[in-house]
Amino acid sequence: LWYSPVLPPLFLISAIALGLGMVTLEGLVSSWLYKREPEWPQIKGQTRAASIELALYVALRIGDLAWRGQIGWALDGSWYATLFWTEMAMSAIVPAVLFRLPERHGGQWAVRWGAFLTVAGFVLHRVNVGGISHIAVTGEVYVPALTELFISLGIVAGLGLIFLFFVENLNVWEEKPA
User: Which DSSP state fits 89?
Assistant: First the structure.
């Protein structure tokens, strides 16, 4: 379910969709953090593009399984099939639908959840590709060392601090945050 000869294009398409979802999520979080109205016109454009990328990703991923004759693995009811469909629903199917909901059907709520699910779903996808699917093949479970976790968290925290510094000390917005 996770190995494919078209893995590089799948990762590229998913990285574009993930990037759009992450930028949307970051914009929503920073708007909340600085008590500003989110920039909805830009967010709507991002989520429209993300929904197209997500639909392309789903079509390529399912099409690849069907083309290679492996679609049965996704339909056999196993734990891996459940994990596959959970990942697909979280990362692509549900967010693509949520991003296309009109304003009158809860557009802002849908955008928030769609962005969160896109990011969480593709994190699950990367975990599945890089770890869980290997358990079936190797029989070994990989657990990152504490140093790996701390380095990863440190990089994310450092980049967050740089972002906060720029927002608070440079003219990122027309008005300085409160």
Answer: I
pLDDT tens per residue across span 14-55: 999 999 999 999 989 988 888 888 888 888 889 999 999 999
Let me know if 56 is exposed, middle or buried by CB neighbors in 10 A (0-12, 13-18, 19+).
middle
Please give the Cα distance from 84 to 2 (Å, whole number): 8
Query: Angle formed by the axes of helices 40-67 and 7-33, to 10°?
Result: 160
Tell me the two tokens of residue 109.
Answer: 């709520």
Helices of type H across the chain: 7-33, 40-67, 71-75, 79-88, 94-100, 107-127, 133-138, 146-169
Burial class from Cβ neighbours inside 10 Å (0-12, 13-18, 19+) for residue 5 reads exposed
Backbone angles phi, psi at 109, to 5 degrees: -60, -45
Tokens of 104: 């009158």
* Cα 169 to Cα 159: distance, rounded to the nearest angstrom: 15
On the 0-12 / 13-18 / 19+ scale of CB atoms within 10 A, 132 is: middle
The distance of Cα 35 from the centroid of its chain, to the nearest Å, equals 25
